[in-house]
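User: Quick one: structure for sequence A, then sequence B.

Assistant: Sequence A:
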Amino acid sequence: MPIVAQTEKFFPLKGWGEVLAQSVRSSDELLAALELHLENLGNGLSAARQFPVLVPRPFVERMRKGDPRDPLLLQVLPLAAEDQLAAGFTVDPLGEQSTNVETGVIHKYHGRVLLLAASGCAVNCRYCFRRHFPYNENRLGRSQWQSALEYIAQDASIAEVILSGGDPLMLQDERLAELVEQIATIPHVQRLRVHSRLPVVIVQRLTEQLTDILTRTRLRSTLVLHVNHPNELTPEHAQRLALLRQAGVTLLNQTVLLKGVNDSAEVLIELSEQLFNHHLLPYYLHVLDRVQGAQHFDVSSSEAYALYQQMLAQLPGYLVPKLVREEAGQPHKTPLHAF
């Protein structure tokens, strides 16, 4: 059966753009949808003026009504703790502004480069390490693509282009296809990696056209999703991801370790099991990037390593993600070892 027929059989035809347009855009609206009140939230909410609320409704529907500690809610609700300053938490925790070598290009590691294909996201995660990033100076329209691609073309050491953002899948399929085609004209680039949270919160983004874009190119394509909790995954994800895997796309996942969300061995083990059931291999488990406004999510390195040890003891090796911290100025992500 052709992919399009399977898609029409199993999934509604409502487009991802329409779902995104109907997103929840205020704390009041989010709390009302979950039948919660301000007094349920302890110290209250942040005004979130600089980093507003944005949550697609399908993601809200996976949250437990009446539960102020729901792990999906905590990732998107701006709590008053965001407004507190904490030592060591900065607006540029990974030192990306010094590696922002061209408009829309971040070049931190040997052999690969980040292309900020889109500045927007489908969901504003409160722990986002780029919540203060100067996107206004890094918008990659068609007129800026050429200089970014010329930078990549001039460095023969670059074998992989990583589409990031924002979220690169905020691009319409037609524009994404055009960008991938242009990247593929650079002879020394062999791999394409797409990092995205959009399909996690809006499963309709996993389109037949996206599968075609990632498989018709000469580049070896990998899609890395960002799933933090098993409750984020649905049967629809399994169906659509199966089509991508069958078409030859490598499917990985990276998770951020977040206090109150997934900082238990039970949750992390279940997450790894569910990722595999949804055709995703665990790739990275990131200790929180120390970005200003996210300090209430921080899990210490020693606690993180203890959780990792429990995962090692209970999971096969291929279901244990690499436990890492990303540090400014380092040539690679830093593995966390015993403390």
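Sequence B:
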Amino acid sequence: MNDSAGLDGSLEQNVPVTSDATVTPDTPETEKRGFLTGRVLAWSFWDWGSAAFNAVIITFVFSVYLTNADLFGEKANTYYGWTISIAGIIVALVAPAIGQWTDKTGKRRTVLNIATSVLIVLMALLFVVKPGMLWIGLILIGLGNIIFEIGEVVYNSMVGEMSRPGTVGRVSGFGWGMGYVGGIVLLLILYIGFIAPDVGWFGITSDDGMNIRFSMLICAAWTLIFSLPLMLIARDGEPNGAVSTGVIGAYREVVRSIKRFWRSDRSVVWFLISAAIYRDGLAGVFSFGGVLAAAGFGFSSSEVMIFGIAANLVAGIATIAFGLLDDFWGARKVIITSLIAMIVAAMAVFFFHAGGKVIFWVFGLLLCVFVGPVQSASRSYLSRIAPPGGETELFGLYATCGRAVSFLAPFLYSTAITLGAAWTGVGLAKAGHWGIIGIALVLLLGLLTFLPISRTAHDKTAQ
């Protein structure tokens, strides 16, 4: 591997960052053999199963139930926001230390299985949250967020273990796509069976929120069934160095790791920063997509629901398809191309908003096409640059960096609407479409910080 120039123009001697010296971090290396092995399927089904928490509990169903002012009080929405924020701060604090400990002990399977099992229990306990029991619901949701993200750190770090150097992009894309599709399949089952009808399957009604609460038991069972294959086949690895004692010792190791990355290949550190920025923009697309559709384009609640289902299906299919490009084209090109396409689509939503719902359907779905590919390619990129034995720690830093800037998209979204309303004089209610400019700015900032990262260490030509 050749020397590479860092962002500051100085030459840095790269240390080997993969187990195969002929493979560079973003090698668009072709692989003739198939990638859908039994291990890959087992790994990807964890994403399919755990999507019950993200798609159903956090995004579409239980969060809506818990923030209903008629059922849980006028302050439920505010308290819910604070709960999620506090959970995010805790994840940012503990993720790198847990990652460092997991790598040092080699106990990936142990941490993943414990996190998954606890998450399933917490999901099942949501069944007890009747109207008025706000604080019990908030505590369970907050703990669930923390445990889910800890499990996801370990799960993401396993992508390199489940793939070969020439298939990591396809494996990552397939797993991420399975998560999208799995969540929507479960959502449709719950919507048709329990949420939409007055009397659902098994005679379930909405009295005391029973249709929502019973759906949480289904979510727990769904996650258990589809997570079980990975929980059974995963294996703990060999210990990788001495284990630090205590939390302070773990964070000292984290600081030393960051310094080591900075000295050996500072493009790793810059990637963590850049990815944190544009990933917040990606989160903003889905977090505010429904709100934008309703406030800016007049979508009804049912139309928002239909758009959300379509958006997730499009994202899932596109992510699996772009996984092939990742391996043959390179993760860096997938990230750059997708971010550019998203920025163009976002600005089209803004400039052509007078065209109404058709414009949002066309360009809103186009935005969703590229969300998953960027997320998946970022995971495969990080897997390629992770040093052997340090994958979980690096993915822990990845999660922490993402949390550190998670305020950016919400802040710029709201700011853009406020400035747009002041500029046009139409009032906040009619300036909802300006919010997409805030999301586009976050994506643009992420793209601009990603472009200067040294290409030399990330191209096949560097071999």
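Residues 34-462 form a domain with the Growth Hormone; Chain: A; fold (CATH 1.20.1250.20). Strands lie at 4-5, 11-12.

User: Thanks, that's what I needed.
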